[in-house]
């Protein structure tokens, strides 16, 4: 399943917010990603149309099974890469930023090799 990097970032952020707060709101996504509410509205519309999220009457967001799978995959890569970079002596903030850049383009084969290492 190939989706855009920005969609992966939104799904990953939604998973993080779900774990942190127990719910997902658009306003929290905007704050977490440092974007404006209209950008979140556009992204959530596309994610709904693609079947990655649902929204209820109170506009609370839920990741679908497919959306959750993507979010967990991206987040797992992010955490492992961050841990690896910090272990190599990279500053934690830089390690997180670099992990975010790499997590989208890393092949499953390379990721599995890193995980085994």
Describe it.
α2 crosses α3 and α4 (65-87) packs across α5 (92-102). The radius of gyration is 15 Å and the shape is globular. The chain is mainly α. The longest helix has 23 residues, at 65-87. Helix content is 69%, strand content 5%. A two-stranded antiparallel sheet has the order 1-2. A hairpin with a 5-residue loop joins β1 (53-55) and β2 (61-63). The two termini are 26 Å apart.
Tell me the distance between the termini.
26 Å
Tell me the β content: 5-15%
Task: Tell me the major beta sheet.
Answer: 2 strands, antiparallel
Low-confidence stretches: none
Shape assignment: globular
Write down the secondary-structure element order.
HHHEEHHH
Could you report the average pLDDT, rounded to the nearest whole number?
93
> What is the count of DSSP helices, taking H or I runs of 4+ residues?
6
Our Rg estimate from Cα atoms comes to 15 Å
Question: Outline of this structure?
Answer:
The chain is mainly alpha-helical and 117 residues long.
Write the layout of secondary structure elements.
Elements (H helix, E strand, L loop, with lengths): L4 H17 L4 H8 L3 H13 L3 E3 L5 E3 L1 H23 L4 H11 L5 H9 L1
Antiparallel strand pairs: 1-2
Helix pairs in contact: 1-2, 1-4, 2-3, 4-5
Give structural attributes.
globular, 5% strand, 2 strands, 117 residues, mainly alpha, two-stranded antiparallel ribbon
């Amino acid at each position: 399943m190939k989706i855009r990097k920005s969609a992966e970032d939104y799904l990953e952020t939604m998973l993080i917010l779900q774990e942190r707060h127990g719910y997902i709101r658009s306003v929290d996504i905007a704050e977490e990603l440092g974007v404006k509410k209209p950008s979140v509205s556009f992204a959530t519309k596309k994610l709904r149309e693609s079947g990655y999220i649902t929204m209820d009457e109170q506009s609370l967001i839920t990741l679908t099974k497919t959306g959750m799978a993507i979010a967990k995959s991206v987040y797992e890569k992010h955490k492992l890469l961050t841990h690896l970079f910090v272990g190599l002596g990279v500053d934690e903030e830089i390690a997180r930023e670099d992990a975010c850049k790499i997590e989208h383009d890393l092949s499953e084969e390379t990721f599995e090799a890193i995980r085994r290492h």
